[in-house]
Amino acid sequence: MRILCLDVGDKKIGISVSDPTMSIAQGLKVYKRVSLKEDIQELKKIMDEYDVRELVVGLPKDLSGSIGKRAKGVLDFVDAIKAKTSVPVVLWDERFSTNEAHRVFDMASVKHMKRRPFLDMMAAQIILQGYLDAKSSK
């Protein structure tokens, strides 16, 4: 069993997956969005391939913690996923995940142009690791 995590954007979705012990998050890929139908088909394919039993989706709340325009778009996407799959979905606060991804790349001295293709995947990995750490501490 594995947990899949999505960092959903308007044009791309960063995807990460847990290891089988559900303790370590691993970046998987950045998926370029095509259409809602094709996006869901791709996610279902990945979920089947990795035997995913739970889906974590980063919720981009505003700094105040409220639900803004971006978060509403993610919630609509989550509703579409729930309608097409039986995998339980958990929403996880993703505030600052992209900033944290930049910090990781800065520490590794990766230039901005080289990190761009991997930024969403790294953000998904950071979101998932936060979820896994919180889950294991319960």
Structural write-up:
Strands 3-2-1-4-5 form a five-stranded mixed β-sheet, sandwiched between helices. It has helices at residues 36-49, 69-84, 97-107, 112-115, 119-136; strands at 2-8, 12-18, 25-32, 52-59, 89-93. It is built from five helices and five strands. Helix 3 packs across helix 5. The chain has 138 residues and is an alpha/beta fold. It has a single domain, classed as YqgF/RNase H-like domain (Nucleotidyltransferase, domain 5, 2-Layer Sandwich). The longest helix has 18 residues, at 119-136. The mean pLDDT is 88. The radius of gyration is 14 Å and the shape is globular.
How many DSSP E strands? 5
List the secondary-structure elements in sequence, H or E: EEEHEHEHHH
Large-scale geometry: globular
Poorly predicted ranges: none
Summary tags:
alpha/beta; Nucleotidyltransferase, domain 5; single chain; 138 residues; five-stranded mixed beta sheet; 5 helices; 46% helix
Helix and strand arrangement:
Elements: E1 2-8, E2 12-18, E3 25-32, H1 36-49, E4 52-59, H2 69-84, E5 89-93, H3 97-107, H4 112-115, H5 119-136
Parallel strand pairs: 1-4, 4-5
Antiparallel strand pairs: 1-2, 2-3
Helix pairs in contact: 3-5
Question: Summarize this, please?
Answer:
The chain is 46% helix and 25% strand. It is an alpha/beta fold.
